[in-house]
Write a structure and sequence with these properties.
The protein is α+β, with helices and mostly antiparallel strands. It has one domain (21-324, 334-339, 351-408): Trypsin-like serine proteases (Thrombin, subunit H). It is built from 6 helices and 23 strands. The chain has helices at 2-13, 24-33, 119-122, 302-309, 314-321, 394-403; strands at 42-43, 46-47, 56-62, 69-78, 81-84, 91-93, 96-99, 102-103, 109-110, 113-116, 125-129, 132-136, 140-143, 171-174, 188-189, 201-206, 226-232, 241-245, 252-253, 261-266, 269-279, 293-297, 407-408. The strands form 4 sheets. Strands 9-10-13-14-5-4-3-11-12 form a 9-stranded antiparallel beta sheet, with helices on one face. A hairpin with a 2-residue loop joins strand 11 and strand 12 (132-136). This is CRE-TRY-7 protein.
């Protein structure tokens, strides 16, 4: 009797999350439909119509007081899954992810992935498309590979490179309810790293800031979809990342673009190839000619995406989801809005009508306000030496000079 009471108490306090991968028929329909329904905030990028990128969504994670929000861009890859960056939920501190200033609770690690199932965090999340809310309070967020410690392989000869190059910055949002795929649409998913081979041209759409030329941040609006074209650069990175830039040195992704998808045509279907992780937009000196962007390689995570979402090719699906049948979920009670209106211009709106600031993740400056010293970007490392053979090498020195100017968006 005593043990029964203990068990009941544990069950009452344990959050049980039952997320739904796609079943086999849903996965087959997704592959037929993804990346097709389209017409055929990026710094200096042009404004874009939502119909050009109906898979791009504006992400807001409000703080505990619900007075301001961290903003990112996400990409719809199924009716109930969105790809985004880990640092839209967590801050990087000395190579370790933290959530709201606390180290990751290892009890929430499932194999290599970290699961966010805390309703106190999830209920503060809103997702918008074309300035309208389309989802809120997701069921779960998976920070992919956030529970493992990486080490340098392809970049082992780089010296003094910051921690952010050896952590995974790739996350998946599991929505509670399916999205209505009419005005919004799902994009296809890259099948391998070969999709981000050097020289590949990609289209990026994001909801980031567009600060005036030469300024750190200005009144450039976030929440307006913008577009840029980038080309993958032939510079060594670990397999889970790649670098890209605008070949005309005109545009670069900025605050709020983080987590957004870079896409290309694969067999006539728009396919997400990269999830934006880092940029050097924050420093005006590093925009234009020196502008570079770092993306998580979606092809690298293809099997993880299959395992976690049911978005798979025919051979992969049965490996992880053989015999799976989707079960109905209970309806959630209606939730009241977090705020009376959406953030505009990168500034969140206080519930009482007082404008607040929209904080950015660690290693990135907050919009229109000085950064907290504990959140500052890594020290300028433009003078760091890179030598594959223990001696100075101009080629590798150039690579590190390019890589070292990034900060997380």
């Amino acid at each position: 009797m005593r043990w029964s009471s203990v068990l009941l108490a544990l069950l009452a306090t344990t959050q049980i999350v039952s997320c739904d991968p796609l079943d086999k028929s849903e996965n087959e329909r997704r592959f037929q439909d993804c990346g097709r329904k389209m017409t055929s905030k990026v710094y200096m990028g042009r404004d874009a119509q939502q119909s050009e990128a109906p898979w791009s969504v504006f992400f807001l994670r409000f703080n505990k007081e619900k007075s301001s929000a961290t903003t990112c861009t996400g990409t719809i890859v199924s009716p109930r899954h969105v790809l985004i960056a880990t640092h839209c939920f967590a801050e990087l501190n000395e190579g370790q992810w933290e959530i709201e200033r606390k180290q990751l609770d290892k009890s929430h690690c499932e194999k290599d992935d970290y699961l966010i199932t805390d309703d106190n965090i999830l209920e503060r999340i809103r997702i918008e498309s074309d300035r309208k809310e389309v989802a809120r309070h997701p069921e779960k967020v998976t920070l992919v590979k956030a529970c493992i410690k990486r080490s340098a392989v392809k970049t082992a000869n780089y010296r003094n490179v910051t921690h952010q190059y050896y952590v995974d910055d790739f996350a998946i949002i599991d929505l509670y309810n399916d999205l209505p795929l009419n005005t919004i649409q799902q994009v296809c998913v890259a099948s391998s790293k070969s999709e981000n081979a050097a020289g590949t041209q990609l289209d990026y759409f994001g909801y980031g800031l567009n600060p005036p030329k030469g300024q750190r941040f200005g009144k450039g609006e976030t929440g307006v979809l913008r577009h840029e074209t980038v080309k993958v650069i032939d510079l060594p990175m670990e397999d889970y990342y790649f670098l890209a830039k605008d070949p005309n040195s005109i545009t670069v992704a900025c605050v709020g673009d983080s987590g957004g998808g870079a896409v290309k045509d694969v067999n006539g279907q728009k396919t997400i190839v990269g999830v934006l992780s880092q940029t050097n937009c924050a420093d005006p000196k590093n925009r234009n000619d020196e502008a570079k962007e770092q993306y998580a390689s979606v092809g690298y995570y293809n099997e993880d995406i299959c395992r976690l979402t049911g978005i798979c090719d025919d051979q992969q699906y049965d490996k992880y989801h053989k015999g799976y049948t989707k079960k109905p979920k209970p309806l959630r009670p209606t939730e009241s809005p977090v705020v009376p209106q959406r953030p505009v211009g990168g500034v969140a709106v206080d519930p009482n009508g007082t404008p607040g600031k929209s904080p950015a993740p660690r290693n990135q400056e907050a919009t229109e306000e000085s950064i907290d010293p504990t959140q500052d970007a890594p020290e300028d490392q433009s003078s760091l030496k890179v030598d594959p053979n223990g001696a100075n090498s101009g080629y590798f020195h150039t690579i590190l000079a390019l890589v070292s100017v990034f900060v997380m968006l």
